[in-house]
Amino acid sequence: MTEQNDTRESGQAKAGAIIVPVTLFEQNCTIIWDEPSKKAVVIDPGGDVPKILEAVKQTGVTVEKIWLTHGHIDHVGGAADLRDALKVPIEGPHQADKFLLDNVVESGARFGMTGVRNFAPDRWLDEGDSVSIGGLQFDIFHCPGHSPGSVVFFNKDLRFAHVGDVLFAGSVGRTDLPGGSHATLINSILTKLLPLGDDVGFICGHGAGSSIGQERMTNPFITGEM
Which CATH number goes with the domain that contains 189? Predict the structure, then answer.
């Protein structure tokens, strides 16, 4: 059911996380929760909503929010249905991805994904905003390039980030989709993510996670720009 189960603790903050791979894209739908309260958020429910709901049940948490890193179909395809099922608000991404959320059905059709719906979040997110779940607070960084409205969620106390498809272990997000820009993406990584600190670990939208320090030293898309 889940690909990864992780816990992080710093001072008074303690959190847990599991990854639920969804859709044919094996997208890392992530459930993060505040350990003391068991209040949780689902990040990027791209599809397979019954699978996500079963993971929530098995984990024993109470989901209070849905957060979106960006508007691509493999990250948002199940968002509307999950919102209806859990009766919780959707927060994110940045409003620059509105054109993607307005065309979820069309995007899904291109990949044979049926039953998806266009939708709008309950709250758009922007640089400098913050979101919270239980006792956990995450700062928002607007990191365009993979998509115009991509955002990153960063918890300073836990030294942890969810970066969506901005940065990967050994790679970066693709930029050949509408609104993408490689130069803009690299600038987002260099000016927004690397300054967070080498000790910051992250979950990304696909594949294994990594750390800022590891990517600063070994990621060929970054080392060639420094």
Answer: 3.60.15.10
Q: For residue 105, give both structure tokens.
A: 């059905």
**Rounded CA gap, 64 and 36, in Å?**
15
Split into its structural domains, the chain has a count of 1
Q: Give me 221's structure tokens.
A: 């898309």
Is 176 exposed, middle or buried (CB count within 10 Å of its CB: 0-12, 13-18, 19+)? exposed
For the stretch 122-145, pLDDT in tens is 999 999 999 999 999 999 999 999
Domain assignment of residue 8, yes or no: no
> In this structure, how many other beta carbons lie within 10 angstroms of the beta carbon of residue 171?
16
User: One-letter amino acid identity for 63?
Assistant: V
The DSSP output letter for 206 is: B
Residue 7 lies in a domain: no
65-122 tens-digit pLDDT: 999 999 999 999 999 999 999 999 999 999 999 999 999 999 999 999 999 999 999 9
Query: What 3-state class would DSSP assign to 102?
Result: coil
61 part of a folded domain: yes
Answer yes or no: are the C-beta atoms of 180 and 145 closer than 8 Å. Answer: yes
Angstrom distance (rounded) from CA 64 to CA 69: 17
Sole residue written with tokens 């930029």: 175
List phi, psi (to 5°) of 132. -145, 155
Q: Which two tokens stand for residue 222?
A: 């970054």
Q: Determine the structural domain holding residue 178 and report its residue range.
A: 15-223
Q: Is 139 helix (H, G, I), strand (E, B) or coil?
A: strand
| Residue 103 within any structural domain of the chain | yes
Task: For residue range 31-58, list pLDDT tens digits in order.
Answer: 999 999 999 999 999 999 999 999 999 9
